[in-house]
């Protein structure tokens, strides 16, 4: 898990530097930085969506995942948990939840995460994850400067998600096939696009309720391949 540990460290270091820089910004600058981050996340989302080929499968997974998340009240539950953490760590951080969700999706949903983690689990080669770590460190600095300390807590998500993929590498090798990785990335892009819409105050979206769609997608793609 060397690659994941390096990734966690770069996110923590980048977030810390971003917080130091962000504290020096006046409110009007912070406001436009958040808008810039919103536009940036929309751009990331679109570039990820372009890789999709199974649009119906993504749509069905999104519907199934959203219904599951709504029934389980994931949005309310996780926001409540994040609210408790925020009240103890940084009660004056207005974008704690957005920072955590944005960074988690940007860092954990994509080809480099899946392929890099499984590759390290199978061969011990962490080169791809270390490359990703450098990118995530720079991105975490940018995100934390506008969205605050919530970005730092995404290091937990990186550790859990990438670590799990590495440990289960041999069993999850099928996810590295183009049909899975491209559409998994595309669905992640849809969720990241939704975050950008929220950050720009266009529409409030229960993004956390949609997260189960990422679990449904491989099953939906597999089933559709049998039909």
How would you describe the oligomerization state of the chains in this entry? single chain
End-to-end separation: 38 Å
Output the structural class. Answer: mainly alpha
Work out the number of β strands: 0
Supply the number of structural domains: 1
Task: Provide an overview of this structure.
- By secondary structure, the protein is mainly α.
- It has one domain (2-226).
- Helices cover 79% and strands 0% of the residues.
- It has eleven helices and no strands.
- The protein has helices spanning 2-22, 27-49, 55-72, 74-89, 96-108, 111-123, 127-147, 154-167, 178-199, 207-210, 213-226.
- Helix 2 packs antiparallel against helix 7 and helix 5 (96-108) packs parallel to helix 8 (154-167).
- The chain is globular, with a radius of gyration of 17 Å.
- The protein starts with a helix and ends with a helix.
- Keywords: Membrane, Transmembrane, Transmembrane helix.
Provide a quick synopsis of the model:
The chain crosses the membrane at residues 6-25, 32-50, 56-75, 96-118, 138-168, 180-201, 207-226. The protein has 227 residues and is mainly alpha-helical. Helix content is 79%, strand content 0%.
Question: What labels describe this entry?
Answer:
227 residues; transmembrane helix; 11 helices; transmembrane; mainly alpha
Give the topology, please.
Layout: H1 2-22, H2 27-49, H3 55-72, H4 74-89, H5 96-108, H6 111-123, H7 127-147, H8 154-167, H9 178-199, H10 207-210, H11 213-226
């Amino acid at each position: 898990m060397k690659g994941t540990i390096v990734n966690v460290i770069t996110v923590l270091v980048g977030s810390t530097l971003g917080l130091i820089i962000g504290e020096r910004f006046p409110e009007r600058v912070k406001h436009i930085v958040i808008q810039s981050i919103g536009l940036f996340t929309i751009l990331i989302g679109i570039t990820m969506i372009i890789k999709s080929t199974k649009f119906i499968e993504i749509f069905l997974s999104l519907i199934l995942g959203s219904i599951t998340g709504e029934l389980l009240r994931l949005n309310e539950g996780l926001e409540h948990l994040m609210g408790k953490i925020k009240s103890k760590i940084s009660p004056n951080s207005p974008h704690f939840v957005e920072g955590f969700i944005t960074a988690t999706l940007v860092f954990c949903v994509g080809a480099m995460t899946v392929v890099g983690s499984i590759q390290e689990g199978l061969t011990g080669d962490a080169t791809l994850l270390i490359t990703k770590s450098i990118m995530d460190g720079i991105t975490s600095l940018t995100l934390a400067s506008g969205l605050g300390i919530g970005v730092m807590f995404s290091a937990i998500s990186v550790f859990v998600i990438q670590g799990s993929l590495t440990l289960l590498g041999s069993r999850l090798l099928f996810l590295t096939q183009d049909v899975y990785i491209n559409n998994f990335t595309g669905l992640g892009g849809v969720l990241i696009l939704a975050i950008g819409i929220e950050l720009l105050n266009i529409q409030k979206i229960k993004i956390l309720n949609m997260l189960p769609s990422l679990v449904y997608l491989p099953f939906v793609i597999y089933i559709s391949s049998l039909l």
